[in-house]
Design a protein that fits this description.
alpha/beta, 7-stranded mixed beta sheet, 24 helices, 11 strands
Length: 672
């Protein structure tokens, strides 16, 4: 865009066109987030692979923009495809194969159905086809508007989409509410001649989701589909809590639990002189561990859990009613975030089975508890102990190497060997007093093999044994990329025809990696809660919108200068250690984190907006940019090998490639 064009009279598109564009964009993002949550809740173990649903969404949106150039439409079929996906998922449940010990997935379920290399691509294809419908609507609107005007309203719709989904998460709305909103949006967007088919498909989807939502014991938290089931075991009543199809917690009387599962009393036996004046329990869940601590004489307990619905169930139905005890304070928060924000000192800090069954959205290897088991986190826990204090953790760890790794992490943090009890069935209880003299261990512990180095805040992959990227990821990613290449070639024609927009493809890849790094950083600094994650996504969209408005309204530097600014800001971010920020109070920490994260994003999108504004075919340009984001999503798995900080080097290299392949004459786009 020339300087003269930048100050010309603003475009005044038809209000109906803008409304259609905003609704299509809102539906795109809302449907994407809904499918990530819903499929992860119903396809057992898919919650450990939610990034594949995200990649399918990117492909669908990219293909939708390519279809928008055609005379035919996929929009009428999209609601039907979505209905088939929902019906098939609920009628024929699939348990994705998670066999192998290189990466551990916490579950006690056996696996059924096709292996991941088959199930994941199938889900990927259906998600892409469903998202292509609303994306086509947006793509056709792009053809009738100037590129930046269209992009501006697309971002507005995306902000509405994520805000709506965040509100429903806060309200713990059931899946049928998501289905009703999606079906209604499809009905509005479809042409009148197709509305009968759209209505039938939407009714089928909503009916299935209504049956799911009304099933006995089913409720939704911001993280999981939760199911409760009352039963009696050995004459004792108890309540099973299942999340995302996997057994998660059991509510029963603490006295009975200690008799049948004595390992829960080991942290107290190993530190017999502990006064228990102040206790912190992270992973408090439905309250069983809190009830046990009270029975052991705890005078005050801070109970922390990330899931508000599970804590609510504990308050309502735990037979010991621990959350009604005046000695207990409840906190709904991420465990690491609580540790970093509290000034309290504790006689006992207990990590009570805080294993999650899902990933943080947009980060393929960060689980909700990933930053709780790093070397830095255990050291932070140690800093919050009183002179008589002790730290303990327990769980069913499945693999000896994981037990050894955790014991080694605690030993490094406390500078002495902890007590390690192995009650059996891959259980372990690890206890360490601040002063070694205050702990009384049972039999001496000898590691089963070589001890893996502790996980770190930069590489918070506790359950990853190391070595090459697991084959399950490589085969699945290979299949996804092959499917994508075939689909793009079929709908977009020869790839060489898209050569003028190769730089936008690489910008998409770099931006996706940059966003992933920022999600990881904010999860570390402020917690892995759904609210933090939603705010990061919304913040990114708003910064992108600000970059678009800057490019539309003001003169901006030439592309070489903007790319230089991107590299410089990435360098600053690379050399600022997150550990330094954790020492700051929350408000200054937030300010610095926002500046470090969003300045590169802002500059990157100024560069994108300048190139996008100059494109002759906004549909192909935007579609190719989204397909580049798919590549970035695949490259994200390199974080297992490099850590998140080094991803910034890869981001800078990809932006350099984007600059080098910018068509001659456009690499030096002047101020606009």
């Amino acid at each position: 865009m020339s300087s003269a064009e930048a100050v010309s009279a603003p475009e005044r598109p038809a209000p109906a066109l803008i409304r259609r564009l905003v609704l299509g964009s809102t539906l795109m993002l809302f449907l994407e987030l809904s499918l990530i949550r819903w499929l992860g809740s119903n396809v057992v173990h898919l919650s450990y692979f939610s990034n594949f649903v995200l990649l399918g969404s990117f492909l669908g949106v990219g293909l939708g923009f390519l279809i928008a150039r055609k005379s035919w439409s996929i929009l009428p079929a999209a609601p039907l495809i979505l209905a088939v996906l929902v019906i098939a998922t609920l009628a024929a449940p699939v348990t994705i194969d998670r066999a192998g010990d290189q990466i551990i997935y916490f579950t006690s379920l056996s696996t059924t159905g096709p292996p991941a290399w088959l199930a994941l691509p199938l889900i990927f294809v259906f998600v892409a086809a469903a998202l292509a419908g609303p994306a086509e609507v947006v793509g056709r609107c792009f053809a009738e508007l100037s590129p930046l005007t269209a992009y501006r309203w697309d971002l507005v719709g995306s902000v509405i989409g994520i805000t709506s989904f965040t509100l429903l998460s806060f309200l713990q709305a059931p899946s049928v509410v998501w289905g009703v909103l999606v079906a209604a949006a499809f009905l509005v967007l479809c042409a009148p001649k197709n509305r009968l088919l759209t209505a039938v498909a939407g009714l089928a989807t909503v009916t299935m989701l209504l049956v799911e939502s009304l099933a006995p014991g089913v409720s939704w938290s911001p993280y999981y589909k939760i199911q409760t089931h009352d039963q009696t075991y050995a004459g004792v009543p108890l309540t099973d809590i299942t999340v995302n199809g996997v057994p998660h917690q059991i509510m029963r009387a603490a006295a009975q639990r200690l008799i049948e599962e004595p390992q829960y009393g080991l942290p107290y036996q190993r530190t017999p002189g502990n006064p228990l004046n102040n206790v912190l329990i992270i992973g408090a869940g439905s309250g069983s561990d809190v009830a046990i601590a009270l029975s052991k004489g705890a005078k005050h307990i801070d109970a922390v859990d990330i899931d508000p619905r599970i804590m609510q169930l504990g308050a309502e139905r735990n037979p010991d009613h621990p959350y009604s005890d005046p000695r207990v304070s409840r906190y709904v928060n991420d465990g690491r975030a609580f540790l970093e924000s509290t000034s309290g000192k504790y006689d006992l800090i207990l990590f009570a089975l805080p294993d999650s069954l899902a990933l943080v959205t947009g980060a393929s290897q960060i689980r909700f508890e990933s930053f709780l088991f790093t070397q830095e986190a255990i050291t932070a826990a140690r800093a919050h102990l009183t002179d008589q204090g002790a730290f303990a953790m327990y769980n069913y760890y499945r693999e000896d190497w994981l037990i050894d790794r955790l014991a080694g992490t605690v030993q490094t943090a406390f500078a002495h060997q902890p007590c390690v009890d192995l009650p059996g069935d891959n259980q372990a209880v690890i206890t360490a007093a601040l002063n070694e003299a205050n702990q009384t261990c049972g039999s001496s512990y000898v590691p089963a093999g070589a001890v893996i180095a502790p996980a770190s805040d930069d590489r918070p992959f506790l359950y990853y044994q190391g070595g090459p990227i697991p084959a399950i990821y490589l085969w699945t990613l290979g299949g996804i990329l092959l499917i994508s290449l075939i689909a793009v070639r079929a709908l977009g024609g020869p790839l060489r025809a898209m050569r003028p927009y190769a730089d936008l493809f690489f910008m998409g890849a770099a931006f996706m990696l940059l966003e992933t790094k920022n999600i990881a950083t904010f999860a570390l600094l402020f917690g892995t809660t759904w609210l933090v994650n939603a705010l990061v996504f919304a913040g990114v969209l708003l910064i992108v919108l600000a970059a678009v408005e800057t490019t539309r309204r003001f003169k901006t530097p030439p592309l070489p200068v903007v790319f230089g600014g991107i590299v410089a800001s990435l360098a600053v971010t690379f050399f600022v250690e997150p550990a330094w920020l954790l020492t700051l109070p929350v408000v200054p920490r937030l300010i610095v984190a926002v500046l470090l994260a969003f300045i590169p994003i802002y500059l990157a999108n100024v560069a994108f907006s300048k190139r996008f504004a100059a494109s002759d075919d906004s549909q192909s340009a935007f579609g190719l940019n989204l397909l580049g984001a798919m590549l970035g999503g695949c490259l994200e798995y390199l974080g297992l090998l490099t850590g998140y900080r080094n991803l910034l080097i890869l981001v800078a290299c990809i932006y350099l490639v984007a600059f080098l392949v910018t068509p001659r004459g456009r690499a030096s786009l002047g101020s606009s």
